[in-house]
Amino acid sequence: MHDEGRNLLPSITMKSLLASLSLLVCATLASAADFDWKTRFPEGLVDNTGKTVDLATLKNKTVAVYCSAHWCPPCRAFTPELVKFANANKTKLAVVFISSDEDAERMFGYMNEAKMPWSAVPFKSAGGQTITKEQGVTGIPTLLVYGKDGQLLTKNGRDLSVLKKLLGK
After folding, report:
1. Domain co-membership, 82 together with 109
2. Which residue, among 37, 49, 38, has the nearest Cα to 116 in the 3D structure?
3. How many structural domains is the chain composed of?
4. Peptide bond preceding 141: is omega within 30 degrees of 0, i.e. cis?
5. Are residues 23 and 73 in the same domain?
6. Model confidence, pTM
7. Which residue segment(s) compose the domain that 142 sits in?
8. Amino acid 104: pLDDT
9. pLDDT of 18-69, one tens digit each?
10. Is the same domain home to 115 and 57?
11. Which long-range contacts (CB under 8 A, 24 or more apart) does 101-105 make?
12. What CATH number did the domain enclosing 113 receive?
């Protein structure tokens, strides 16, 4: 492919490369924005009264999965810090609670007492149990942090300085 002595092949190749890169970037951004949180939380989410919460509330946010229980003193000590942090970062961060309490009544009691501004997986849901098993959660409190694309970023979210860095603060 020549045009009056010029080789057009490098120009065509560069255009193809740039077009391919543009498509790749767009596809990556779309997949991050379109992550289906239903794959992580198949039973959905509930608020502190048991009412269903739309999974769309997680869209385009970093999601911190908080494994905790009222009977756990370290959990009760950490929860107010997380509540404050979550309230200050609610445009970037969504927290989802997985309870290790004895029953749903105690789970909701803990959520209300601690003024947790986030949703929870239904008590003893299979989705919550799958997450804790897959991530090897053996103790509480644990804060698992997922990116907007649904990929695990850290199991060390309890260190709020790590969480701040992940949120770009």
Report:
1. yes
2. 49
3. 2
4. yes
5. no
6. 0.79
7. 37-166
8. 96
9. 444 443 444 344 444 578 999 999 999 999 999 999 999 999 999 999 999 9
10. yes
11. 101/69, 101/70, 101/71, 102/71, 104/50
12. 3.40.30.10
Which amino acid is it at 110? Y
pLDDT at 75 over 90: yes
Residues 119 and 81 in one domain: yes
- Residues composing the chain: 169
Closest CA to 48 of 119, 152, 122: 119
Q: Is the dihedral of CA 11, 13, 14, 18 positive or negative?
A: positive
- Is the alpha carbon torsion for 56, 54, 74, 81 positive or negative? positive
Token pair, residue 53, equals: 């919460």
Return the structure tokens found at 15: 């255009």
102 with 162, same domain: the answer is: yes
103-133 pLDDT tens trace: 999 999 999 999 999 999 999 999 999 999 9
Structure tokens at 9: 């092949």
Mean pLDDT of 89-107: 96
